[in-house]
Amino acid sequence: MEQVIVTHRNTDFDAMASLICASILYPEATPILSRAVNANVKAFLSIHKDIFETIFWDDIDPDRVRRLIVVDVNRWNRLGRAQALRDKSDLDIVLWDHHAPPGDIAAGWQCQEPMGAVITLMLRKLIADDRPLSPMQATLFLAGLYEDTGSLLFPATRPEDARAAAFLLEKGADLAIVGNLLRPAYGEKQKDILFNMLQETRRETINGYSISFNRQRTKGHVGGLSVVVNMYRQILNVDAAFGIFSNKDDRCMVIGRSAVEALDLGAVMRRLGGGGHPAAGSAMLKSANPEAIEGMIRDLIQGNQQASVQISDLMSFPVTAVPPDIPMKEAAMILREKGCTGMPVVDSDGRILGIISRRDFAKLRQDRQYDAPVKAFMSANVVTIEPDISPMQAVRLMIRHDIGRLPVVEDGRLIGIITRSDAMTYFYDLLPS
Q1: Which superfamily does CATH assign the domain made up of 312-427 to?
Q2: Element (H, E) at 17
């Protein structure tokens, strides 16, 4: 045996799909599966092992391996027993991966691009080479693609992922089977852990993002913890959640789930020796204190977020504002001249008192009311935001309160304003050419 295909431990469907796809692209290579696989993948293999043939590391002689094809991972420490080949001088390495940044596997040839799923990258070559694909293979590949992109909903999803999904559906991928394959492995053990986590919820805000850390002691092996952490995050409705699970052997499994791309959990977990994607990541640490791990993650997030975009980067300033005693007719004239739909009302110290908008002029029924001061018609219930908050938080406030602008305040004083169009310009990259 001279050519083998390997992927990371705790193999998920994207890794499994990539392993099988690599065996199509490199028919002379043998796919090797880790004994540590995702619970859903294990259930899948129990039925389909005769269709998708793989072997274990025990079945090969490492000395005979001349070519190593690595999929869905770029770091040696995530390859399990395949790390034994790390110092092999005559080893030809081929790498397929969609994680960033590059890891420590020095490949002679590689395809490494940011993509929602690595199977998308491999399908590019499979299509170019006009390789045949069975409906069962297409179904497995679609399961891998959907798992890593959250059915094309994760922020890391790229247009090519969607085109790859369409290709697989054209090749006979069965969505009903995919739905069954991706059904969470959620039983009594997982339910008990989630219950305990919900009894001990803690939230905190880091640079405008809501985050929850939860430390739990587990007994024996518990699968499906990523499902538990994801459910925990959704129930708490936080931007990111981290579960730190320790056992009697002082091993800590750290699992993170995020709904915000700026909180790149893959980058955080790589610093802990693990890996992942912007929306999901994990790491296994030995002889580690759970409380210390939490502190490390917090420090990493704070460092990661200092370079992220904040409201202060997007807000407009100086702000067109009016005093509370200005007549409504003058305020209307300013709104027309400036072409804006609303503006803050501030006192002589720059403290915000209210907002006067075009909506408020609908309250005027008589001509003499145009001579009344804006303080008589302004909206005094002002929703404001601080400059170090994230654009996503600003959008959430606008949606929740059905408003088109947020005054930015610091130490109680108005320093800028962010509008709905400012936020959309940022999120959709609608910058002027």
Answers
A1: CBS-domain (3.10.580.10)
A2: helix 13-25
